[in-house]
Amino acid sequence: MMTWSKKLFITLTSTLVTSAVVATPLTAPQQTSVDQLLKSYQAQGASTPSITAGAEFWQTKGDNGIACTACHGQDLTQAGKHIKTKRAIEAMAPSVNPERLSDVGKVEKWFKRNCKSVWNRECTATEKANVLAWLATQ
Amino acid sequence: MQTANMTNNIKKLSLITLVVAASSTAMASDGGFFSNVFGGNGYQPTGQGQEIYQEECSACHLAYPAPLQTKDKWLKIMSSLDDHFGDNAELAAETQKTITDYLIANAADTNGESSKLSKFARRSRDNGSLRITDLEGFKRKHDEIDKMRMVVNNPDVGSFSQCSACHGDNAQKGIFDEDTVKIPNFARWDD
């Protein structure tokens, strides 16, 4: 049986091949940590990651009345701004910011904090897998 | 041989210049000589944790110099990171302990006491707030600032927690002298 991480890989690869606009591929450290995280979410019972669901989740307002975009903005290739402190937040897109998604610990730390700030709870493994799969394409 | 002598002379000269400069700074300020030389403008953090503190906390706001808050307030702040002024700022247990220890060691009423900055916390009446920007001393120093115009609605500032926006890189070193203030989009701040 094919694991969903393999399925996702195939989907991503075929998207890249067939798409007219080819997204910048992840750097090796980014790819390594994304793979590791997706594997761990799968082990926690996540369903097959959906890039579309990830994109939608990013835009959805959580229980605290804000969405991820409140601080990260609409254009992930641009810097965002913390909604309260107004601190600049570097661009989230891994294609323009090589630091993004390259450190497993940081991804987990910010998922934990920010899900609680937006949703008032931790995100499920499926939600995190979806968002990560989508972010990886940005 | 001559080069070595010259280097020595230069070293001596630099030392004299340093002492003279330090003395004049001390005389111009309101604290004692030693407190100004060793902890007056800026502060010398002790113990482990300074780097981790910077990295973790300055992701959202200035990593406020530890002498700006008392030990008991730092403890309260660090033990309620799950609701950090409305945001979740939880840290891994180990990181949290390192930062807490660092802040307590350098607080206004511990090692940080020798820093000029500590007077803001030590001389402020407790108004129940854990925010450094709510300290009486902080408010007094900023009472001429039009908060809405110069801070909140200023696209390059936004909040009092962005100290560096007006105090520049000095803020991170604990230097908040009035003559180095430059409010973005406003003419030079001059009292």
From TrEMBL, chain A:
The signal peptide, as residue positions, is 1-23
Organism domain of life: Bacteria
Identify the keywords attached in UniProt to this record, alphabetized. Heme, Iron, Metal-binding, Signal
Sequence ranges assigned to domain Cytochrome c in this UniProt record:
49-138
GO molecular function ontology, one term from the record: heme binding
Its recorded name reads DUF1924 domain-containing protein
UniProtKB/TrEMBL annotation, chain B:
Gene3D superfamilies on file: Cytochrome c-like domain
Q: Which domain of life is it from?
A: Bacteria
Keywords assigned: Kinase, Signal, Transferase
Which Pfam family, any one of them, does this sequence belong to?
A: DHC
What would you give as a GO molecular function for this chain, any one?
Answer: electron transfer activity
In the record, which residues are listed under signal peptide? 1-28
List the protein's name: Diacylglycerol kinase
Q: Which organism is it from?
A: Maribrevibacterium harenarium
Taxonomy, top ranks, is: Bacteria, Pseudomonadati, Pseudomonadota, Gammaproteobacteria, Oceanospirillales
